[in-house]
Structures are given as structure tokens and as C-alpha cells.
Design a protein that fits this description.
Elements: E1 2-9, E2 12-20, E3 26-32, E4 40-43, E5 64-75, E6 78-90, E7 93-99, E8 106-113, E9 116-124
Antiparallel strand pairs: 1-2, 1-9, 2-3, 3-4, 5-6, 6-7, 7-8, 8-9
């Protein structure tokens, strides 16, 4: 799976591409003002840790998940006519996620505040 994430803060835009492999590793390329020419590529794999990890199924009681509805969403990976839109609110901030039948991850995520915005879209998968 590959995601394209565009973040805008203080008038500056940064684009990040995350590509996840079936083996569980990923690469990340970042482009934007202040980045080295040609972007920057990093390996975001992990060698593992013996430290206690938090349980990703544990959700704080202030988190609210709400199904907003079903709508058509278009991202670089295609158009999904029956995407489910969810609002996830925590600490007074809301992030929107779209999921689509048959896609193993989300197809779009969107967040915005007075400080900036971020849109992450599915760039490709398969």
C-alpha cells in the first residue's frame, strides 16, 4: 500500500509518500521546502523491541467514533462509490477517515485546524 500525505502549516506544504510492503517494512519519501534536493528517503522498518508495547485495541474513553455516512471518494488509487466516512474525535479534535469495501486500509484521512491541515490519500495498492 502506498499513501500520499500533504501537510500545510504556516503557509508551507510538505508532501510525504509512505509505501508499505507485504513483509511489514515501509519506505518514506518527504518533499517540501527545507528538504534536500530530490526529497529524502528513509526506511521506517523496526528491528523490534523488548519494551512493553501499548495495546492498539485500547481506546481512551474520550474517543468517539461516528459513522457519518456513505459517499463517493476519489483518490489517486481510484474512485470508491461506496466509501464509508467516519469521524473520530478525541481531545476536541476531529479526524475524518474513509474506508472502502475490499481495501485493507483506509482510502483517505483528513484533518484541519487553525494551525494547518493534512490530507492522506491511498496512492496505490495491490
Amino acid at each position: 500500500m502506498e499513501y500520499k500525505s500533504v501537510t500545510t502549516t504556516g503557509g508551507q506544504t510538505t508532501t510525504m509518500y509512505l509505501k508499505y510492503t507485504k513483509s511489514g517494512t515501509c519506505t518514506m519519501r518527504i518533499e517540501g521546502e527545507g528538504m534536500p534536493s530530490g526529497g529524502m528517503t528513509m526506511d521506517c522498518s523496526s528491528s523490534g523491541s523488548q519494551e512493553q508495547q501499548s495495546n492498539p485495541s485500547d481506546v481512551k474513553s474520550d474517543v468517539q467514533f461516528t459513522l457519518v455516512g456513505t459517499e463517493t471518494v476519489t483518490v489517486p488509487a481510484g474512485t470508491y462509490a461506496t466509501a464509508s466516512k467516519y469521524a473520530v474525535t478525541s481531545n476536541g479534535q476531529t479526524v475524518y477517515y474513509w474506508t472502502a469495501p475490499g481495501v485493507p486500509g483506509f482510502v483517505k484521512m483528513q484533518y484541519g485546524s487553525s494551525e494547518g491541515s493534512m490530507v492522506t490519500e491511498l496512492n496505490g495498492w495491490g
